[in-house]
Amino acid sequence: xxxxxxxxxxxxxxxxxxxxxxxxxxxxDRHLVHEVTSPQAFEGLREAGRPLRRPNAILSVADHxxxxxDQEKGIADLTCRLQVEALEANVKTYGVPYLPLLDERQGxxxxxxxxxxxxxxxxxxxCGDSHTSTHGAFGALAFGIGTSEVEHVLATQTLPxxxxxxxxxxxxxALPRGLGAKDLALALIGRIGTAGGTGHVxxxxxxxxxxxxxxxxxxxxxMSIEGGARSGLVAPxxxxxxxxxxxxxAPKGPLWEAALAHWQxxxxxxxxxxxxxxxxxxxxxxxxxxxxxxxQWVTDIGGRVPDPAEAASADEREAMRRALEYMxxxxxxxxxxxxxxxxxxxxxxxxxxEDLREAAAVARGRKVAPGVxxxxxxxxxxxxxxxxxxxxxxxxxxxxxxxxxxxxxxxLGMNEDRLAEGVRxxxxxxxxxEGRQGRGSRxxxxxxxxxxxxxxxxxxxxxxRLMEM
Amino acid sequence: MEPFTTLTxxxxxxxxxHIDTDxxxxxxxxTTLVRSGLGRHLFHEWRYDAEGRERPDFVLNQAPYRQASIxxxxxxxxxxxxREHAPWALKxxxxxxxxxxxxADIFFTNCFANGxxxxxxxxxxxxxxxSMEGPLTVDLPAQQVRGGGxxxxxxxxxxxxxxxxxxxDEIRRTEANLADIAAxxxxxxxxxxxxxxxxx
Lengths: 469, 200
Prior knowledge:
The complex is a heterodimer.
Chain A: H1 6-14, E1 15-18, E2 24-27, E3 30-33, H2 39-48, E4 58-61, H3 78-94, E5 98-99, H4 109-115, E6 124-127, E7 141-144, H5 147-156, E8 158-161, E9 165-172, H6 181-192, E10 200-205, H7 207-211, H8 214-222, E11 231-233, H9 238-244, H10 253-263, E12 276-281, E13 288-290, E14 298-300, H11 314-327, E15 342-345, H12 347-350, H13 353-363, E16 373-376, H14 381-389, H15 392-399, E17 402-403, E18 424-427, E19 442-445, H16 448-457
Parallel strand pairs in A: 3-4, 3-6, 4-5, 6-7, 9-10, 9-12, 10-11, 15-16, 15-18, 16-17, 18-19
Antiparallel strand pairs in A: 1-2, 2-8, 13-14
Chain B: E1 6-9, E2 11-14, H1 21-24, H2 44-47, E3 70-73, H3 85-93, E4 97-100, H4 105-112, E5 117-120, H5 123-131, E6 136-139, E7 144-147, E8 150-153, H6 158-166, H7 170-175, H8 178-191
Parallel strand pairs in B: 2-3, 3-4, 4-5
Antiparallel strand pairs in B: 1-6, 6-7, 7-8
């Protein structure tokens, strides 16, 4: 048999049929649904009088629109409330499993799925959300889809697909102390650009990836989409299996044993060929921080704001000039000299317990700098409870951070957690696009440790200097 | 779905790189429960100032581009969020064809579900098109963009072309494969029984 990549294998195992026009129909094992990208899909189903094919293959939760304060009082914003109510009505009508707002398991869809054991190795996972790539951390083919595709999956449990190309990313060497998966992701995107992975599925390999926890792997795969790839993959291993064992929706008993035997075979063949390969030596990598309005515009914390004059092309020069104007930054400014007014720790990229531990280790015994507003938003109710059991909430509160309830929050500001015009923010989220965190706001993407370091110093700071020696 | 065959119209130049879907339609308009009505919010932060007044320097606020049905854009158009609100907003404004050097994957797929034609052309050709006066013609059957005496051919996958030309409903198409899907499910229940979630 021809050697295959992990992506080829998952693809082959989910191929229902190839149609006359060359498109393939791919079976979808798991479907995550949230309030923002599903109402029109359910409406379409209703209008056509179609049944929902497989309710138990779905897990639904409201996350984008929910408040992160006083959730007990309900949703004050009318349009947000109506959208969550529409989701609740739809899941009731169609018998779809749903985690309600005040359920401890509620949270960001990409935090909740793995926590519940809904995401499994070798499966296909979709959601009307680009950060569905997160679930690739389990060796699942996971990708974001549009609302019309959501409707297609609700009705048929399949999607017409064209096969992507294979891209292998190999990180050479071990991660230096004080760095994490977020730095790997940002450094990679800095190298290949936000369109570098377009049309490809990325498989992450190398000793640093093997050494990452499941949460780190989720952070890395989460950012695949920012490198243009719809999906990222990490082949499952003992770290994956240990994480999944005993999760509520993971298989149990003899089924676990059968699943495990299959999962242990899930890897790219030694001789499998990749259409593209990117090798990144990370032995001397420094903490990463973005300076522009695209995740590819990133530099070392010890670096400086670049000069558009040095851009490779006229288009790039103009794009950089616009970005620096929007970000209100001057070429040559050391990154560590840039003051900021806001810090956001949370999101599907960095809202898990290990992220909060990393930030709390820096915040412990320190104070948020004057003039800085800092938010910590756990990725789910379970993350929040765990953090509280470990006393992380006390550390954050004593340092002057706000401790919130779970949701997508300031990553995209669909609820009231938005930045005012001109406010500069160190954010553990995934996008620094114009207006992403609020009209005219300025986002710099960093790791949780770097965000906490920025909060307590009031400027971008190399977190390694604040770590206990 | 409305088929796409040949379109002649005004082409608005917006030749910036990496125009993301947050820019095409920002978050505050995503709470809608319907697909229609997003056209007036298209490119909201570029099109209006903080008080909601039109910015005269933005291309879609200028004649004749208010009537544009074609958009010329830079590489990696539609990157970022999967929100289908982006093609909904473009279509509701009146845009039916997008010409750019490259598109992000999810956005590209979302276009076909909404009868929008994304055409890939090199930046030099887009710059030529942007500098021309008068309407352009996007001819899908012939796979050509024509205007100002020029003709530029473009590539498109036959399956994608058929979806637009015939205005195919993808779900109806897939329903022709329901027996294949049932057979697949039956096989998987035996081969991978751990995938079945019995109770949540």
